[in-house]
Amino acid sequence: MVDTPEKHTGSRFLYDSFDAASARIEANERVNQMQFEALGQRLDRIEVMIERLDKRLWLTVYGVVGVILAQGVSSIIDAVPK
User: Fold this and answer.
1) Which residues lie below 8 Å from residue 15, measured CB to CB, with a gap of 6+?
2) Under DSSP, is residue 8 helix (H, G, I), strand (E, B) or coil?
3) Assign residue 76 a region: left if phi > 0, alpha if psi is -120 to 50, beta otherwise?
4) Which of 21, 65, 67, 80 is the most exposed place for a label (fewest CB within 10 A)?
5) Whole-angstrom distance, CA of residue 81 vs CA of residue 77
6) 66 membership: H or E segment, kind and range
């Protein structure tokens, strides 16, 4: 008989369920970690999109203000007697 070192002593049926449970827990932890990484990547993309939208909104606001000021200056110039 060849003696091989085993990590457990006693019946294998006693420890098989624990090994399966710990393997299941480790698999769930890996899945959770991958989900959190994917969520972080999605949040980064959303943040970039929000920054782009913010720039576009400010550009629109400045454009509207510019048009209003141009119309005001134009009406002032038209109102000045020649």
Assistant:
1) 8
2) coil
3) alpha
4) 80
5) 9
6) helix 12-79
Q: Within 13 A of 34's CA, how many CA atoms are on the CB side?
A: 6
For tokens 């510019």, the residue is: 66
Alpha-carbon distance 62 to 69, whole Å?
10
CA 60 to CA 39: how far, in whole Å? 31
Return d(Cα 33, Cα 82) in angstroms, integer.
75
Cβ atoms of 14 and 21 closer than 8 Å: no
pLDDT, one tens digit per residue, over 14-41 is: 556 667 778 889 999 999 999 999 999 9
Alpha-carbon span 20 to 42, nearest angstrom: 33
